């Protein structure tokens, strides 16, 4: 029997669009029509619906010629009643709207999840927060018409993706590529199969991260020739730096307040792997440094240095590029960010206060039909971005931390914990050789029978544990807390227990 016979959710780095990462399994399905207006038939104050439900029009809503019309003057709802939605169930709504002023919104559940209506015929995906199936809400200044309303139940494990800003990734050709807001990053760093990249919010404080000829960069015995070499993004926008004498430098000063125990990371792309090419300048407060040189495609390397401060002061932190000898190098993409490790490149073309990339958020709720709360398996193939002393969760839950099945990186180096229930529930902690490399972890959960397999071997069991209830959410966090920052190659949910042989095969 194939493992695919029991799998209910499979999420891999495959198809995606803005705001959504597609699951391989299950194939999205739509239920029967629940609400359809056809022509908004009106009886008194109620617009009767062809499915037997009806619409109640609030102040400023009228129906004429089979169309719902909203006029400015008052903010109010037009609500469909007589058919209850199911809390946490997902719905797909198709609506034709024309909004000439103000705004109109579609709600699933009163004051629950909503989307702003756009002109034309559009599709919206929402999760019910209570028993009112659908409402159209308009602001006091809104003039609009609404027609062709359709609402159906929607079953899908496609994950919602939220990141309000643009970002970068490494594409299949090894080039750094811009990615629009809310588009998941399918990243090919390291080559081979891609992974889903989830990072924390970071800001690149360097005002001109690619223009080293700008006056914000201090030059000593160096000559900068901009835009005369191909950069890691594949275009002619890298600079050549020439050191005319040994130990000359290119310097960037950042004024900041350092805190004992907090860290700053600096990074730059260059065509040399000289280990001390990038460093903190001598005026930088003291601390503990960790340096790394990452080999990239096209003859480039990314140099990173992180300093954890041992001094608290309001001072200057110096980003310095230098060479002990005379030479010419190609440089591109400087970054200065608060944090204990360097993240993906954030371009800055002149924003003095820095450019921010928001946190990546991946969730899917309203999928209780795909998750068995009594027994099942959560399987992931994941790598950490760093051993950074934080908890980073992937979970099945009911939207709370008390009812959950979690796999997470601990706040200790190279440790992964499986936790059933609340933070005081039953858990198993496993040591892995390297959390920064990909590890395959599967937790099989069942009353008094929890087994944890890692990279093909049984690594822990729990023989006394109650199961969480109402599991209906899959997320790269737990109840919107302790988000997962890392790389995900595979994410699968099984709605039944698996044998030890199957679990070993799954994680090998």
By DSSP, the count of extended strands is 43
Number of helices: 1
Q: What separation lies between the terminal Cα atoms? A: 18 Å
**Which sheet architecture does the biggest sheet show?**
16 strands, antiparallel
CATH-defined architecture of the largest domain:
Sandwich
- Residues in β-strands, percent: over 45%
| Overall form | globular
Which CATH class of the largest domain is shown? Mainly Beta
Q: If you had to describe this structure to a student in words, what would you say it looks like?
A:
There is one protein chain. The protein folds into three domains: 29-155, Jelly Rolls; 202-357, Jelly Rolls (Sandwich), CATH 2.60.120; 362-507, Jelly Rolls, CATH 2.60.120. With 508 residues, the protein is mainly beta. The two termini are 18 Å apart. A hairpin with a 5-residue loop joins strand 28 and strand 29. The protein contains one helix and 43 strands. The strands form seven sheets. It has a 16-stranded antiparallel beta sheet that branches. A seven-stranded antiparallel beta sheet has the order 4-5-6-9-14-11-12, with no helix packed on it. The model is unreliable at 41-51 (pLDDT under 50). The protein is globular and about 80 Å long.
Please give a handful of descriptors for the protein shown.
single chain; 508 residues; globular; Jelly Rolls; seven-stranded antiparallel β-sheet
Summarize this entry quickly.
By secondary structure, this protein is mainly β.
List the helices and strands and how they pair.
Blueprint: E1 7-17, E2 20-25, E3 29-36, E4 41-43, E5 46-48, E6 54-57, E7 61-64, E8 67-70, E9 76-84, E10 90-101, E11 104-108, E12 113-116, E13 120-127, E14 132-138, E15 143-155, E16 159-162, E17 167-170, E18 176-179, E19 185-187, E20 195-198, E21 202-204, E22 218-220, E23 222-229, E24 238-243, E25 248-258, E26 263-270, E27 278-280, E28 287-295, E29 301-309, E30 313-323, E31 327-338, E32 355-357, E33 361-364, E34 375-384, E35 392-397, E36 404-409, E37 415-420, E38 426-431, E39 439-446, E40 450-454, E41 457-462, E42 473-475, E43 486-494, H1 500-507
Antiparallel strand pairs: 1-2, 1-43, 2-16, 3-15, 4-5, 5-6, 6-9, 7-8, 8-15, 9-14, 10-13, 10-15, 11-12, 11-14, 16-33, 17-18, 19-20, 20-43, 21-32, 22-25, 23-24, 24-31, 25-30, 26-29, 26-31, 27-30, 28-29, 33-42, 34-39, 34-43, 35-36, 35-42, 36-37, 37-38, 39-40, 40-41
């Amino acid at each position: 029997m194939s493992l695919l016979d029991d799998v209910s959710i499979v999420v891999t780095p495959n198809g995606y669009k803005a705001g959504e990462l597609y699951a391989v399994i299950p194939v999205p399905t739509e239920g029967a029509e629940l609400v359809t207006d056809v022509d908004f038939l009106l009886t008194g104050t109620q617009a009767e619906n062809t499915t037997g439900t009806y619409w109640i029009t609030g102040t400023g809503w009228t129906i004429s010629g089979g169309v719902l019309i909203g006029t400015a003057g008052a903010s109010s709802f037009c609500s469909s009643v007589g058919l209850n939605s199911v809390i946490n169930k997902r719905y797909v709504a198709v609506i034709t709207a024309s909004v000439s002023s103000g705004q109109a919104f579609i709600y699933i559940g009163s004051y629950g999840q909503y989307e702003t209506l756009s002109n034309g015929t559009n599709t919206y995906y929402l999760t019910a927060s209570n028993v009112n199936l659908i409402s159209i809400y308009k602001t006091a200044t809104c003039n609009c018409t609404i027609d062709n309303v359709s609402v159906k139940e929607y079953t899908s494990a496609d994950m919602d993706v939220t990141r309000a800003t643009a970002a970068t990734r490494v594409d299949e050709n090894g080039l750094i590529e811009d990615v629009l807001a809310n588009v998941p990053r399918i990243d090919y760093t390291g080559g081979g199969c891609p992974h889903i990249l989830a990072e924390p919010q970071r800001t690149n404080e360097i005002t001109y991260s690619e223009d080293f000829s700008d006056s914000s960069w201090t030059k000593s015995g160096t000559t900068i020739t901009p835009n005369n070499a191909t950069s890691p993004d594949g275009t002619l926008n890298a600079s050549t730096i020439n050191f005319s004498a040994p130990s000359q430098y290119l310097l960037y000063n950042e004024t900041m307040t350092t805190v004992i125990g907090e860290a700053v990371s600096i990074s730059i792309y260059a065509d040399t792997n000289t280990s001390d090419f990038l460093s903190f300048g001598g005026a930088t407060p003291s601390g503990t440094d960790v340096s790394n040189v990452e080999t990239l495609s096209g003859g480039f390397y990314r140099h990173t240095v992180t300093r954890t401060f041992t001094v608290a002061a309001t001072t200057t932190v110096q980003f310095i590029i230098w060479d002990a000898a005379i030479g010419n190098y190609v440089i591109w993409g400087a970054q200065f960010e608060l944090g204990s490790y360097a993240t993906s490149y954030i371009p800055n073309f002149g924003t003095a206060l820095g450019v921010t990339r928001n946190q990546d958020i991946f969730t899917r709720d309203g999928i209780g039909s795909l998750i068995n709360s009594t027994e099942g398996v959560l399987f992931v193939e994941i790598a950490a971005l760093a051993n950074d002393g934080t908890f980073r969760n992937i979970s099945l839950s009911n939207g709370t931390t008390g009812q959950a099945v979690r796999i997470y990186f601990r706040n200790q180096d190279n440790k992964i914990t499986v936790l059933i229930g609340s933070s005081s529930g039953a858990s198993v902690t496993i040591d892995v050789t390297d959390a920064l490399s990909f590890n395959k972890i599967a937790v099989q959960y069942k009353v008094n029978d929890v087994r944890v397999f890692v990279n093909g071997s049984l690594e822990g069991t729990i023989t006394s544990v109650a199961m969480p209830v109402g599991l209906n959410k899959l997320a790269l966090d737990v109840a919107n807390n302790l988000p997962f920052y890392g790389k995900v190659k595979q994410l699968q949910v099984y709605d039944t227990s698996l044998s030890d042989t199957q679990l070993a095969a799954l994680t090998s």
